[in-house]
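Re: [ENG-882] Designed sequences occasionally contain unexpected residues at chain ends

Forwarding the minimal case from QA. Structure tokens:
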């Protein structure tokens, strides 16, 4: 599959925390960096996500807002 998103980070799942509606997936992308993504529980189940899985985080966003 080819994607238009150029921001693709390979990593390993370190945690999948499932709630009633969404799941938070934490991915170790190396160099001491961790990425966190919130997806639906259905998506996590369909993908069969589990700790230790090799995955690719694909980032396609026009805005990233961080405030303090």
């Amino acid at each position: 599959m080819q994607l238009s998103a150029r921001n693709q980070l390979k990593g390993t799942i370190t945690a999948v925390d499932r709630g009633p509606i969404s799941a938070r997936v934490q991915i170790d992308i190396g160099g001491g960096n961790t990425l966190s993504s919130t997806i639906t529980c259905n998506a996590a189940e369909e993908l069969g996500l589990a700790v230790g899985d090799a995955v690719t985080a694909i980032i396609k966003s026009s805005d990233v807002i961080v405030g303090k």
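QA comment: On inspection the terminal residues look reasonable. Strands lie at 7-18, 22-30, 33-40, 54-59. Proposing we downgrade this to a documentation issue.
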